[in-house]
Amino acid sequence: MNLSDVEWKKSTYTGDDGGNCVEVAEVNGTINAPEHKTGYAKLIAVRDSKNPDGPVLYFTQAEWDAFVAGVKDNEFDID
Fold first, then answer.
1. Which among 2, 7, 64, 68 could bridge 59 via Cys, Cβ 3.0 to 4.6 Å?
2. Domain boundaries, the chain
3. C-alpha span between 15 and 44 (Å, rounded)
4. Which residues form the DUF397 domain (predicted)?
5. 10 Å Cβ neighbour count for 20?
6. What CA–CA distances, in Å, run from 10 to 26, 40, 44, 75?
């Protein structure tokens, strides 16, 4: 998949040094979808900012919305 023209975004909490963070981007699913995510017009792509040529995870909008809601509800906090 060619993601060279994708506008990647980092969290505003990322410092000037780049830090340890992920980048997210909205991508055209009809062009960039991996086989298991075909049929979606839009996908959310996630990658490691320190390894931009490394693996990319893809989420549907519903999956991404559920993840963000879980983060906001502290579902992933480690006790």
1. 64
2. 19-72
3. 23
4. 7-72
5. 10
6. 13, 24, 13, 22
